[in-house]
Amino acid sequence: MKTKFFLIRHGETEANLADIISGHLETPLTKLGREQAQARAKDFIKINFAAVYSSDLTRAQETAEILVGKKLKVQTDERLRERFYAELDGLIVAKARIQYADRFALRETLTREERIEFRLAEGVENDVELMARLTKFLFEKAIEHSNKNVLVVAHGDLLRSFLMWVGEYQYGQLQGGSVDNLGYVVVEVKDDKLKVAKQVGVKPNSHID
Length: 209
Prior knowledge:
Layout: E1 2-9, H1 14-18, H2 31-43, E2 49-54, H3 58-68, E3 74-76, H4 93-99, H5 101-107, H6 112-115, H7 127-144, E4 149-154, H8 156-165, E5 179-190, E6 193-202
Parallel strand pairs: 1-4, 2-3, 2-4
Antiparallel strand pairs: 1-5, 5-6
C-alpha cells in the first residue's frame, strides 16, 4: 500500500521579503503569501486529503488553514519545522554570508558525506538531524494513513534539503530559495522506500530561508 504526501512550502512571509533567515523564529505571512495559498488551494480542490499536517510555526499553520479551509483540522508537528539556524536566526542573508564567509566557502568544498554532517555555526541543525525528524514523520504517518493522500505544510530549506538527501539533486544544485513559496513535492511512501513523484515550483540554483 502506498501513501502519497504533498509536501508544500508556506506562503511568502515578512522575513522572506526582508531576506532574513527565519529558521525557528516566528514571522507572519504577507498579503501576497495568503493570496499564494488561496491560489494553490484551487489546484488541490479535486484531491481528497485524508489528513493535513503542518509545522507548528505560525506561517505554516496559516498556510495550511487557507489550503484546506474548514474541510479538515490542521494537525501540527514540530518535526516539520524549518532548520534550526541557532545564532544565524534573524540575520539578513547578505550579512550572514559576510559574517560566516569562511564557513559558506568551506561547505562548497565538501563531499556529500561531509556535507550532511556540516554545521554553518555551532548549534545549527545539520542535514542528518533535519532528515531524521522528517523521514521519521513520513514513515510514521504513512502507516497511519495507508493508501491515502496527505497534505504537509513545511518550509523551504527543509524541502530542498530533502530533495538533495534523496538524490533528486546533487548538493549545491539547490541553493536557498530554490523552492518557491507554495512550491511542492509529491512523495510516495511504500514500505521503507521514498519516491519523489512530482515537483512544482522547484528551480535549481537561486539563500538560506
